Fold each of these.
Amino acid sequence: MPEPVLSIRALETHLYSREGTIRPVNGVSFDIQQGETLGIVGESGSGKTMTALSIMGLIPKNLGGVVGGSVLLDGEDLAQMSDSEVRRRRSTKMGMIFQDPATSLNPTMKVGPQIAETMKTHLGINDTTARNRTIELLDRVGIPSPEGRYNNYPFQFSGGMRQRVMIAIALSCDPLLLIADEPTTALDVTIQAQLLDFVREIKEERGMSVMWITHDLGVVAELCDKVAVMYAGSIVEKASVDDVFARPKHRYTSMLLNSMPSIAERTAGRLMSIKGLPPNLANLREGCPFAVRCSAPVDRCTEERPTLLPMGTEHSAACWNPVAETAGNGKM
Amino acid sequence: MFVYTLRRLILAIPVLFAVLFITFTLGFYGPGDPLEIFYNEELVSDPEITQRLRELHGLDRPFWEQFVDYFTGLLEGDWGDSISSGRPVWPSFAASMPISAQLGLAAAVVLVVLGIPLGALAAVKQNTWVDYLIVFVSIVVRSVPVFVLGPMLLIVLVLWLSIMNVPIGWKGIFHTNAILPVLLMAAGPLLVVVRQTRVGVIEVLSENYIRTARAKGMRERFVVWRHVLKNALTPVFTTMGLIMSGLVTGAFFVELIFGIPGFAGLGIEAFQARDYPVILGVTIIGAAIIIISNLLVDLGYGLLDPRIRYE
Amino acid sequence: MAESTGIAGLEDDFQGGKQRSLWVDAMERLIRNRAAMVGLFISVLLVITALIGPYIAPHDYIKTNIANIAATPNATNWFGTDLIGRDIFSRILHSVRTAIFVVVVVITISTILGIILGAAAAYLGKWVDDGIMRLTDIILAFPDLLLVAFISLTIRQPFVNWLGTVYQQTQWEILRDTLFLDYLIVFGALALVSWPGYARLIRGQILSLREQDFIRAQVALGVPDRTIMFRHLVPNSIAPVIVSMSIGIGGIILLESSLSFLGFGIQPPGASWGSMVTENLFEWRTHPHLVLMPGLTLALAVIGFNFLGDGLNDALNPRQIRR
């Protein structure tokens, strides 16, 4: 097996707050191979975004930071690097797009220069070259009449168009890895579909790896090769997309799947909802953090925290009472 | 942008007119019979002379007529005659205004050069001792009135440390005598500039597009210069009226303390001598300065924020 | 749900963080802010001085003593004496009373005026809103010191005349007290320039709160206007008003002193910080303590109020300052 583009081991991130230290990322490990798309799934507050920001080194110093583990990107450990070394790898090795395209672009700066300045920073090219490349990029991400659009302000773009501009920024220096943090959540369904198609296309064209954060399992099914399910700062299940949908092992995963509406099963009755709230990350108790909301907890769940255990080829789950094979994906 | 500019201009005119009207009315009814202030009591007690004087000064006419008269006079640059000197008011305004304007401009430069970087530094170093020190010092400076700070500085610098001579009088803005007055004028509004810059920068630093700029791998210096400052200065801009008001107030005391023959000093003399035509003029011009600077702020918004420009 | 797990001890996981009210939170933040505590200490000290100052003053504050003029600070006259031999410390104690009195009255009047007019503008809209807002535009167009000076200069004579007429009808002696007159004029002029700030603040608060989802939800639920007003709009606008009141205190003390400086404030022999500095402004070379003593105490007082105001601002706007 070739060396993965991104390899994370036992990543731990702390945030400091008045109520004590919060551990939004608590021992996360995963790999992304070249050209592979990994979906990271979980509820709000499960640590998906914090994992991404930890990789990018974008957690503000006064709020907290990575305290343990390694982040190997293209064979180099970002966790051991100085700030400026990490900075030089942003855009060139990893690019990121964010959830809210409406606020992610500088409102008082023209769109073109916002893309061009990225290339000028990292590629050492002059203004004219940067401008020409930016116009090519705008064209590539599907912005009509890119020459004219170069001098427009973000507020003159629609939400979908702004997200395309964000993608253009992220792709401008040809990174190995694209991290996408729920980029389609704020968009209309049709725009969302266009954007997904586009990302898939560009990924194949460039052989880029993608880490796609979402809470939308539909997007995962459409776009990803592998899935990691996060809960309370940890990965609770890792598998290929097919395995996760057909044979979820962790109770949380299966409950997530059951809470997903599907047109084919419209008549099957009520959707399952997962009761309760994710736990307080400042104060995790012993045992499985999901135990309190779980449909089938056993005594061990409150005593000992489960670790990821192999449940098949390239399939692992952190559960003391995994879903039995036969239970499958049926409504419970 | 043109329509926007025009609309702002049209909105400012009624305010200016109202200011004019209110000051004139108060000045008209306020002091009682102007003749009693103009001349001594013996003259005024003779009814015949009084009548002649009234006609001479046009005081026998109704209020409205006098207001229109004053107003048209202003349009022609005639601000009436000073009571104490008997000479037209305008030439003394014209002579003193450039001095105050130079002081004000120099103080504004100090505010920008000192206030904005300090505010930005405090924001970037938020909740560290640098931040606390900057905020602390600017609150202290703001809390000491100019008429206390001025003499105190003089006592320390001239009497105790003897590092300068008594810097009294006006020898041009580039003379060392101007240093203390300019710094003192800037002292009052400094806190406003520092605080607004600090809040603005803190707010912008938490915006998503700053995270984007960092995710792009921009150097922190570029992030602050290119992405933060322009967006953060808008709140500083909104307080321009307050800052101008502070500068005008500062000018009053500074010009008195340092014996500078400026416009505000002229105002103080007029207030002390109850010289109404001069007081009226000073008050109206003072208000006009703030109205005009607020107008400039509105226009500046258009330049800073493209959304307004394309409205 | 929790019970259905049948596993004891998991329930309290749901409670998350302790529920705390905004005010408790704010109080805690304020107490941890050292500068604000110093400010609070100075402010409380000033209020106490205002209440008991004249009774603990070591000397008579208006008694002159030609044999003992311009004495530098010593054991008898702690802050020295002025050019006609009055005890500066005693005069300062009296000017604290004047200053606090002015602050309390002016802040009260202008806050009440501001709340009423601001709420009226926001609630009634249309021409009421336009009228009130244009009025604030006009008042805010003046440099505040200039307007206060101009007002106290021009309304004095008409006011004296009017009070004279009232006196003839009522025979109330107080109406002929010039100190009382000084106070009334200072109050009036200061309140006049202060209320527009509060009115705009309140109006802005109410307008922006009304657009918020939780208020819209109340309206949609058919909650009566009065209930919305008093249970939601007012409590939610009160924090910024408190902040702006506390920040305004320093400003009013400065304005009152400046007014005295220009000769329009409380007239002698009433004691005012501003006039104590001004009377002796040009003595700084020969008798520095005449300027330093009242000047430094005045500065200390304003610093105290400003620190308190700043601390309250931090404490009540957690979102803005501490992330």
Amino acid sequence: MDCKHIEEKLPAYLEGALPPEEVKLVEGHLVACPNCRLALEHLVKAGKLVRELDEAEPPPWLKQRIMERVREERERREGFLRRLFYPLHIKLPATALATVMIAVFAVYIFRAVEPETRYLHQTPSEPTTAAPEKSVTKPPEAIPPKVTVPEVRSEKSRIAVSEADRESGGRRILSEEKEALPKPAEQALAERKISERRQAARGVATGAEEQQATAAKRALPPAKKEEVLYGAAMKDEVQAPAVPAKIRAAATVRPGDVFSLYVRDPAAVMSDVERVLVESGARKVTREFRDGTGIVTAEIEVGKKKEIFEKLKSLGDVKETRKAPEPPAGPVAIKIEVFAGP
Amino acid sequence: MKVFNLYIASFLWYEAARDSIDHLRGTISCARMSKTIEDRKHALRDEDYEIILSCRKGDVEAFGVLVERHQKKMLNMALRMTGDYDEACEIVQEAFLAAYRAIRKFRGEAKFSSWLYGIVVNVSKTRMKQTAQRRQKTVSIGDRADGPGDCLTGNEASALEALEKKEIQAKVQHCINTLDEEHREVLVLRDIQGFSYDEIADILNAPEGTIKSRLFRARGAMKNCLKKNLGEL
């Protein structure tokens, strides 16, 4: 191996990085070659010169300058992040959107609970019966004070309103009745249809009794069916506020027959008709006289119907205008219309 | 009925959300636990790790501690790489700024100092290329009137000896400047800064054998250069 190759291996030899066989080879050459020994000496000295290079001290301002630039960098980055996430043009729409969503949700909730809250507002105890007679236009023939107008209401009204509710809501219903009375039958029918639709939408079960009444009503001629069956009092039902399903379910009186009594002086016979009913054990007897025609309504037991019919024959000419399906037992409503006739 | 449906839907949504949150909490706590163990390992082998965590949390002043701790070594590395004190100061600033920007990317696979010195080497090489393109003439340490001579210890017995030493060091730096880039960096890191081969491998991200090979060539080249410039060593 010549000197050039040995000189190339000298740095590794000094570092101790040569394999043992090469170390022996290099050392053997160094013993015999003064030039390579000098090269090794120069290599050691050069290394020493490099290692002895003085260390430079950083200038005092270096750290200060670095920290200034770092702080600037941080501010720049935070400014960017702030612009990215909290700029006005993003925050405002987000707030507006949130407000709109809350409003929509509130409206939805309100609409969802509206029917229930409406009942809650209507059912609280209102003033009791409170002389309903005042609100009714009385005929010149003095109606006995014991007859109360709420009982003039139709059978359907009685079904819809329980005893307790009738007492509490009587005055309000009557005041509305006054407004409803002059309305034509067609308008009342339209209002009633709307009312029925609302009830169906609320999912209120009206009961088999109402279905029966509706079926019977359909059987009559359209022109008369509302007034004949329920008279003006039916408008009470149309105008009356919706009644909760629980209260409706509590009603037990079924709609009954309608008798037409033809007499010479209807006004004079009204008291007799009422007496006949009371004698037959009728309850909640009401009477009304208007335009020469009287209407007496009451609740009777099913079995008393024939007895009443026979007794009415003694007063005048009696016809069964409408025959309702007869329940096996229990109270039924009856309506006697007194007309002037031969 | 609608209210009831709404209530049921809200309840189901709430239950689902609660399950998701519980699951997420479990995942986060596991991740935190493993992260804590990993942090302890790093803290044991890297004295800078706690400060790095503070920096990641946005504590700028903690970064000042890192600057104080590493600026001198970084400056000398850059100085010996470039041979220019002012340029070395610029390189140190740039390297620290780059480290601050990328401190979240530091994964702790090597020591922070190795990662930081690697940045200095890369910035030095980049700036040296830019400088070489920009100007033909480079200012060496020996040419500077107010260069790192201010930093010399001044323990010399006489001004003559100090001047002689300054001249010798300028020639040594001149020889370093003549080395190839890859030879220069290993010579600076090993013979001037005194890093171990493992540390150099981390800094340069190169195998140890390659580093040694380059170092031996660099030393031979330095011997030849110094013999040529100084005459008798």
Amino acid sequence: MLISAEETFTHLQQLGGACLNAAMLAALDQQEPSPASRFARANLLRRTGDLAGARAAFVEWLANDVPASEARLDDWSAIPSGLFSHGGYAIAPIVMIDDFLPVERMRSLHAHACERKALFRDALATNEDAPPAYDPDRRRTLVDYHFTLERNFFLSFIDENLAALRESLGLSDFSTNRVELKLTNHVDGGFFKTHSDNHAAYSAAGRAITWLYYFGETIPRFGGGDLYVFDSKPSGQAISPAWFTRIEALPNRLVAFPSWFFHAVGPTQLADNDFSQGRFAVSSHIHKTQDSATIWWDDNLS
Amino acid sequence: MTQAIEPSAIPARAEDVLATQSQDVAVLMSMNTGKFIELNETARAIWELTDGSTPVADVVERLCEQFEVTREKCTGDVAGLYARMSDEGLIVFSD
């Protein structure tokens, strides 16, 4: 792993540490409630990975302090769209659905992925303008592009729910031209350094929604592997130095966010490095066609 | 950007700072920037003297009385810490 990536993950662990953030939340409790303290509570909670707590805190903040806000928070929203943290960084809206599939279907998908072990390959990584290449300093992910079980279900789900996903993520109406869909697995030492899935302007054709469905043993044996989605300035290719949302890769959890936001996958620890016990996900990108639409995070460019 | 700190400048705690103790370490965090800063014993003493009415020169004076340290070293430490705190949005200065 690149030293810069190691430093990033150490930094993220410190900032997202449960102990320190719990102490800060306790310090917040000692203060007179204010708009700043309510917003800080939501930010601290999402940084530790308590998305239910963060959602409740955002609801309270929006209701009390910014009732006229256009920020959206529907049933699928873990983090609402249309918000900015300090420095003008857009907070990545997050859709999160737990218990997404009946457990038996999740188990069948897990068995299917394990049967296809020999078909998984090392994922490639891109670096600047160089063509994609295997680069274990930047990414250690195993991928299988041709799984079959539940493939049609996932494609149908996207087709039927794209409008709702777009709405939750604060994205304008767009036409889809294709959907990438693959299985991924992170075994011991797996990680993916900070990157975004789309560097282009919102109006350009390209990846628009990144979504992941985590699956595997009901009680995972791996450690780590958290997804970090950074508060970002997508158009300026900039990342907040301290604010992000941490998402635990819990089995049977679906997560989605706009592909323009920077994100990273923390290192996975797996004691016996058993492929079947890795951090599995269905990983997908929904592509949009070129249009002339604008996007809310560009309204706050500074 | 870090700027030279005048002895007459008066540092005050920023309104959005949270201070707490975690695992025997004092920690400050700006609610806005989200950044933490850990304080050792000396830094903690400086923080406690940062009350919005004590000039930097007086902070140095009182630390020299409290700790066995040369004025030159103390001045450098105080300036360095205040510069970092200012950069992190944890204090503001008035003259």
